[in-house]
Write a structure and sequence with these properties.
single chain; about 350 residues; alpha+beta; Nucleotidyltransferase, domain 5; 5-stranded mixed β-sheet; 12 helices; about 35% helix
């Protein structure tokens, strides 16, 4: 008797495909890539980094493994999917998405996931289509896009579908996105390529001008994190950092907190001006609700001490920092999968 085979529906075995198909939210940032899985929370938080060979023909590592490989030196080159917050390299993004989706669903992709991916507002229609297609090729069953500030607001647990008006500013590494939102609609939105890295560069430039040395990689960011403040500190603090002098020799210098604050003032003023421009675009009828709901700060940059105080003084609105600000976009992308009406309204999806 010949052997016969048949495709038996998983439901006949008591298996629900919908239950097995995961819902994944992905934030591919300039600095970090984060993945939210419904029912599990944020399961991946790694450098948004890929290491390739010298010729660029072969991917050597992604994420943490890429960072470790590059620290060892050698001929590996670093590439990123997002540069300056707004420029997307679709080839690199596709490889990273394949890596991330593979980590979540495993090698046997019988039940392909629904994927929501955050996107910078400045990315146009053709580029959005390319990102959607890259997500599908990486293994998604259905792919959706959501603008970063809207995802950030959702991830901050703000009632974006029912509120009559609020402001959100997402301060990322490569960019800052600001949006005014009411009843699920974006009233005004702007993205600028000033973020945490621009502040780091300003600190490095000031140190070089004052001390005639070049700080080592990562030291400017350390100065920002440990000494930085958006407003004047009550007391002066100092930190020793590694640097290279004019003759190429390693040295150690002492930096004061007042110098760090002065270095980042201009960059912070650019970000404040962006919020002011978005606020000016909001219809006058919404101003009372904005005064009531205020501005919410998200993104890793929101942790800068004194930032809420600075914004409150400049825009005359109540300001607060979201809980887990650096994870808001990843959380929001995942949560948005349960409220697809907002995303589908903009037609940024593909199945």
């Amino acid at each position: 008797m010949p052997v016969m085979s048949a495709r038996i529906s998983p439901r006949l075995w008591g298996i629900d495909r919908l239950a097995l198909s995961k819902k994944i939210g992905i934030d591919l940032g300039t600095s970090r890539m984060m993945v939210y899985v419904k029912g599990e929370g944020v399961v991946v938080d790694e450098p948004a980094l890929m290491a390739i060979d010298e010729r660029g023909d072969r991917v050597l590592a992604v994420g943490n493994a890429a960072a470790d490989l590059l620290l060892r030196g050698g001929k590996a080159r670093a590439v990123r999917s997002v540069g300056d917050g707004n420029v997307v390299d679709y080839e690199v993004a596709g490889t990273m998405l394949q890596y991330l989706i593979g980590r979540i669903v495993g090698r046997q992709r019988i039940f392909r996931p629904d994927v929501m991916l955050s996107i910078p507002p400045a990315v146009g229609g053709v580029q959005r289509r390319a990102v959607l297609e890259a997500t599908m090729q990486a293994g998604a069953k259905t792919a959706y896009l959501i603008d970063k500030p809207l995802a950030a607001a959702i991830g901050a647990r703000l009632p974006v579908a029912t509120t009559d008006g609020l402001l959100v500013a997402n301060l990322g590494a490569g960019s800052t996105e600001v949006a005014a939102i009411a009843n699920g609609e974006v009233l005004a939105m702007e993205s600028i390529v000033t973020g945490g890295r621009a502040l780091d560069e300003a600190i490095a430039t000031r140190v070089q001008a004052e001390h005639r040395v070049r700080v080592q990689p990562g030291e400017a960011e350390r100065l920002k994190l440990e000494l930085g403040s958006a407003v004047k500190r009550q007391s002066e603090e100092t930190l020793e950092v590694s640097a290279v002098d004019a003759s190429g020799r390693m040295t150690t210098i002492t930096i004061h907190s007042s110098s760090v604050q002065a270095a980042i003032e201009e960059g912070l003023a650019v970000i404040v001006a962006c919020v002011q421009r978005v606020l000016a675009e909001v219809p006058a009828a919404r101003h009372s609700s904005l005064q009531r709901n205020g501005l919410i700060l998200t993104g890793g940059g929101a942790r800068l001490p004194g930032l809420a105080e600075l914004f409150a003084a400049r825009i005359s609105l109540p300001v607060r920092v979201a809980a887990q600000p650096e994870a808001c976009i990843a959380l929001g992308t995942g949560m948005a999968l349960d409220n697809l009406a907002v995303v589908r309204r903009g037609q940024h999806y593909i199945t």
